[in-house]
Amino acid sequence: MECLIPGAAECDFSIPIPRGGPIYVPNMVGPSTKVPLFQTSLLSELQNLEAELSEDFSHHDIFVDDLKIFTEDELMDMALKEVFQGREDDDPPHLDQPNARFREKKSNRKRRGTDNSVLESDCIEKVEHVVRIKQKQEEDKASVKLHSFNPACKFNEVAHKSTRTTERMRSLRSMSSTRKVNTVSLDEHIPVPYPEVVLSVEVYHNIRKGSKIQELLVLGRQMLTALRDKIFCSTDQVMQKAGQHDPSGYFLIEDVFCPDLRDPSAIDLTKPILHWLQNSKEEAQKKWEYIISGELQQKQKAIMGEESASQLPHFKSIEMHKIRFCDLSFRLGAGYLYCHQGDCTHTIVIRDMRLIHPDDVHNRALYPIITFQLKSRFQKCNVCKIFRATKVTMDDKWTPENPCYFCDECFSLLHQAEDSTLLYTEFVEYDYNQD
């Protein structure tokens, strides 16, 4: 089935979105937090860092020459220049007297032995000084290696250790790198006040639970309805074409149900759940323990006789258009529930959270921004290789492949007569619609 995203016809490909934020570790869940707490703590850390940097620079002057590392040849040249510099700067002898040159030669013979010994001692002293400097540099290099990559590690060996690790690290990009995203061009401009927190939200497939279908950037002060309006699922289109579209839906984030009741025909799908939780507390407690601890742990507890300490949360319900992301408590990396069209469920994950960056889009009207959208791939007809397949057959004796995909035209030419009756029935036919 073809994925048609509302507003995708008019897109602006020139808006860069910075990547980065807190370090995200797959399969790990952070502690419970809130947007205001994160924002306050981060601003406090920034202020402390600025104060510390300003205090350090006010008392210490750093020069580039102090940071330069000299080679052995450079140090030796500097030492020799210092030794001979004093002798080159000595005043030359006055040769205006007749016997000045003769007296100079004679005195030079007497001083030659003394000068050579002085020169040797000066050179030895300078060389020892150079050696001390070189030793200090080696010690500095050794200390710096503690905070840097090991040069003995070969890149090829590390690169081939695990391709899975490389795939995980693709989402970790520096704040300076940008990527282009599709945003609907709007004439309206609503400035984003600073400070503002940007949340990165992932939406996963309703059937292939491990397949991510969307990634969006949401502002901390936005309502949850803004996120729901940007989530795309083909089930909505199927139900709408069938004339059975249901505007009802809800989020479950931690212990808060957030039903969408903006449409007058919408139904609060959370009422039966809350009613069951209230009237079937024992059964709900058992199911909650299975969710938290898992079935294996529950069997071990039944055998060992351990008592469970996990308590069923006190769930509550707040309408989706009345609650913002900054009003919720959540855990980074945890999976939460999005339900729509009755029983179509998706896992949503708040991957990370960061302050808004100068390179971010500062137009509130454009948020939430879709930074990733899964592209659907469709199977073509195995006969014509041109049109999209609409039917698939199994155990068909006249097909080269099993299963074999057909478009409507090729299927009718091979299997149907002019009156639309089947030429043979030794096959199984299915309608082919791919999400």
From TrEMBL:
Annotated region (Disordered), positions in chain: 86-116
GO biological process terms, semicolon-separated: snRNA transcription by RNA polymerase II; snRNA transcription by RNA polymerase III
Location relative to the cell: Nucleus
Broad class of where this protein is predominantly found: nucleus
Entries under Pfam families matching the protein: SNAPC3
Classification via InterPro entries: snRNA-activating_su3
CC annotations in GO: nucleus; snRNA-activating protein complex
Molecular function per GO: bent DNA binding; core promoter sequence-specific DNA binding; RNA polymerase II cis-regulatory region sequence-specific DNA binding; RNA polymerase III type 3 promoter sequence-specific DNA binding
Domain of life where this protein originates: Eukaryota
Family: Belongs to the SNAPC3/SRD2 family.
Protein name per the record: snRNA-activating protein complex subunit
Organism (species): Psophocarpus tetragonolobus (Winged bean)
